[in-house]
User: What shape does this take?
Amino acid sequence: MRPEQHRQGDGVAKSGARLKVGFVLSRSFTLSAFALFVDTLRLASDQQDRSGRVLADWQVIGSTRHLITSSCGVQVAPTSDFVDPLKFDYIVVVGGLLTVAEPVDQQTITFLKQADAKKVPLIGVCTGSFILAEAGLMKRHDSCVSWLHYKEFRERFPDLSVRSDRLFNLDRQRGSCAGGSSSADMAALLVRKYISRDAERNALEVLQIEKARTPADIQPRRPLYDDYGDARVKAAMITMEQFVDGSMPIEKLAAMVGLSRRQLERIFIEKTGMSPAKAYNRVRMERAKSILVQSKAPLIEIALDVGFENASQFTRTFKRTFGQTPSQHRAAASRAH
Assistant: This one.
């Protein structure tokens, strides 16, 4: 039975009905992402931190019962073999280090495909979305990944939709999240949706989390756009950063944050004092400045990376933005070090 079939009233599950989650842990999985997700379920499932599996249940499932080593070295043992995927309301794939050549075995991939065929929702946590994408299970779905992994996801899966401006995403039969503390946020959403708000509140209070963040919340970091408080401006500038070659049209950028071009122009002028086009140019120049200092790449290569057709055009724009040419900036940075 799917969770939506046993919801009652305000979302409190009927007696005896439980939210059932199966966890698939990859080799070198991220322990914190797994622990925060499963502990949110544990604390929501019972009252007063008794750890009873009253309103939720979970299993770590695998092709063997061998210990699985996390990226920090702590090992976790599967508690169940692969069973009928329909025994679970969600199957959560917890990823980890991207340097691992085969994060899961072929039996696991087969099991995930069986779950997809039976329409059991799949969730990729941390880099778990890479595993789902590699298995061909993220087609026609958005993937939410950490900004640290955005570029690699695009390189590996150029035909798939990916974003790194949000903490997590639920897209029909798929979920994905950036990992870390956002694992608790995603688990809290499931708890609220399929158990109750009281259960969610109980879990978060014990975890010392003030409140759950939503899929609309922005991933925390300290880039150029952090000086601006408007979430739409931040989301737009994150996207600019992801398409630093200048290939994202302003109209499409506006649509991605739910605005018309005119609305986006007005908000940018109000919040940043510059147009989206000027802000986009600034993002590209900031990236170029960073590359100049951190590498010995020739100017033409940097120019092409940030969307210019030739080095002279890039040099003129750089000087107009920072008051010195790229060569002057690189020389000054070299002397400073």
